[in-house]
Amino acid sequence: MTDYLQPDAGWFESTDRLPAPTPTGRKPLFRALSGVARLMGRSEVPDVIALLGRHPRLFWPWLAFASRMMPYGTLPPVTREKLILRTAWNCRSRYEWGQHVEIGLRAGVTDAEIVAVARGPAGWAADRDAAALDACEELCREKRVSAATWERLQARFSEGQLVELTLLVGHYEMLAGFLNSAGLGLEPVIEAELQGFYRRVAA
User: Fold this and answer.
1) Which domain-ending residue is among 11, 37, 67?
2) Which of 54, 62, 99, 140 is most buried when burial is the number of CB atoms within 10 A of its CB?
3) Which domain holds residue 196?
4) DSSP state of 27
5) Distance CA 68, CA 87 (A)
């Protein structure tokens, strides 16, 4: 298994420090969450959902909050997925990256656009989403969108979308920290999709 793209410092390792419950070990109500999988275009509930389900009192409010940004947000899906991918890259979260390479491709992000997101500002300079990606970079690095970038965002996004954009990056940065700490590894089917993407872009 070889990653064609990875951050300079590499991905954080998958350690299964806090493993996701096995399908047979999940509570009946949680096993009934097939609808969550369908929202993400999956036949099975992703392991991150099962892992967060270890804390039911946090899980259900989190799910309601997260779903209002993905998949039910107001940002264009391609823009949203580029922002999540860049956040995953900056946080060195391979699980988040792999999941959203697959989700992003289904949302309409191209192989070339994913590579550009990984390459950084020089890669996305001419992209329609350049201002949003610049804002993501500033939020991850400086924890604040600069005045110049904010002005560029205002030319394209509504006030509500500006709120959503900043919270989206912060949410996935938080989630990446949890995933990196728990050491969750990609599900085999998503790993296969990721490796297929790497083979295509390396060819």
Assistant:
1) 67
2) 99
3) 73-202
4) -
5) 18
Name residue 75's amino acid: L
Same domain? For 142 and 43 the reply is no
Examine residue 174 and state whether it is found in any structural domain, yes or no: yes
Cα angle for residues 123, 193, 46 (degrees, 5° grid): 105
The span from the CA of 166 to the CA of 172, in Å, is: 10
CB 26 within 8 A of CB 56: no
Question: Which residues have CB under 8 Å from 130's CB, separation 6+?
Answer: 121, 124
Angle between helices 77-90 and 130-142 (to 10 degrees): 30
| 4-24 pLDDT tens trace | 999 999 999 999 899 888 766
Each residue's pLDDT tens digit, 30-43? 555 655 565 556 66
**C-beta of residue 52 within 8 angstroms of C-beta of residue 59:** yes
Indicate the number of domains in the chain.
Answer: 2
Q: Are residues 50 and 89 in the same domain?
A: no
Answer whether 5's CB lies under 8 Å from 198's CB: yes
pTM equals 0.93
Helix runs in 7-129, H state only = 28-31, 34-39, 47-52, 56-67, 77-90, 94-107, 111-119, 121-124
Q: What span, in angstroms and rounded, lies between the C-alpha atoms of 203 and 188?
A: 23
